[in-house]
Amino acid sequence: MATKLADSPARGRGRPQIFDRETVLQAAMKLFWERGYEGTSFDDLTAVMGISPSSFYNAFGSKERLYKETTDTYLAATRGWFAGTLAEVGDTREAFEKLLTAMADKLTRKDMPPGCMISVAGTQGGPSLSPIRDMMVAHRAQSEAVLRERLERGIREGDLPQDTDVAALAAFYSAVMRGMSVQACDGASRERLLEIAQFAMRAWPQQPARSKRNQKAKA
């Protein structure tokens, strides 16, 4: 369905249409999210955004630039709850469990396409798509870096063993989340994703018994 343009007075031929940028960005974002970069044609974009080709080029320049802007829009909406959940008061294990639970909810929302726009985007494609692939790789690496920082904080605060391989553990939970996204795209329910999250938490490093006794004594 084409996005409705904002009401505006009649214009002469060749003058650009007026539209709400955020509205058309949301429409384009959902289309890219559902079909991927290669699977979304220029005609598909202008139809769902409800704008003419000339307005498209005037406003966004190219399909690639629009894709970058829609991914930035997506990330701006997700970074808050992603980082915020990890930063909430509680120990590190609790923070990760809450994050996986939140992921199960977000990946199966009824008002958005299933899965995550970033998780598997740009993993395949020819050499001409290397800028898209590199951009998606960088976004995924940034999310994994946030996980790693929270694990490092857990070591500093004493609720993770000092010898925890934070890089490997962050990579593991990043892989779990990407897998949950694929499952959601394949039609998995929120309940199924929660089961996956529960199994993933069984891999959490266990504190040595001595460390646990010391923590109780300090409390």
Give an overview in words.
- With 219 residues, this protein is an all-alpha fold.
- It has a domain at 64-204: Orthogonal Bundle (Tetracycline Repressor, domain 2).
- Helices cover 64% and strands 0% of the residues.
- The protein is built from 9 helices and no strands.
- The chain has helices at residues 21-35, 42-49, 53-60, 63-87, 92-106, 130-157, 166-185, 190-201, 209-218.
- Helix 1 (21-35) crosses helix 2, helix 1 (21-35) crosses helix 4 and helix 4 (63-87) packs parallel to helix 6 (130-157).
- It starts with 20 loop residues before the first helix and ends with a helix.
Uncertain regions spanning at least 5 consecutive residues: 1-15
N- and C-termini, Cα separation: 59 Å
Largest sheet composition? none
Tertiary shape? elongated
Judged by helices, strands and strand pairing, the structural class is: mainly alpha
Provide the helix percentage: 55-70%
CATH architecture of the domain at 64-204: Orthogonal Bundle
User: What is the helix/strand order?
Assistant: HHHHHHHHH
* CATH fourth-tier homologous superfamily of the domain at 64-204: Tetracycline Repressor, domain 2
Query: Which CATH class of the domain at 64-204 applies here?
Result: Mainly Alpha
Instruction: Report the portion of residues in β strands.
Output: under 5%
Give the overall pLDDT as a whole number. 87
The CATH topology annotation of the domain at 64-204 reads as Tetracycline Repressor, domain 2
Query: How many helices does DSSP assign?
Result: 9
Number of strands: 0
Gyration radius over CA: 21 Å
